[in-house]
Amino acid sequence: MPSKVTEKCGSVFVRMVPTPRGAGIVVVMVPKKVLQFAGIEDVFTFSRGSTKTLGNFVKVYKFVSIMCYCYL
Question: Which residues form the Small ribosomal subunit protein uS5 C-terminal domain (predicted)?
């Protein structure tokens, strides 16, 4: 992950920050699966808003992972 990335979908706001190598993905289980499928490693995430809405919660992590590939 090259730099800090923020994204919003609905009422869910997510910020992803790169961490040192070996730290792994620091996030709850459902978005962790999405980030692993995207190939993202060593990242800390912060989310706020209505995270109980699973559709928006997963969708915002999908958008963030797409934004990470836009920088490459």
Answer: 8-59
> Structure pTM?
0.77
Does the structural domain 5-70 have CATH classification 3.30.230.10? yes
Measured between alpha carbons, how far is 16 from 26 in angstroms, rounded to an integer? 10
Local mean pLDDT, 10-residue blocks, the chain (72 residues): 84 90 87 86 90 85 78 53
Can you list the positions of beta strands (E) in the chain?
5-9, 12-18, 25-26, 43-48
Q: What does each C-alpha distance from 68 to 45, 50, 53 come to in angstroms?
A: 13, 23, 23
Is residue 25 a contact partner of residue 42, using CB atoms and an 8 Å limit? yes
Question: Looking at residue 17, what is its pLDDT?
Answer: 92
CB 56 within 8 A of CB 12: yes
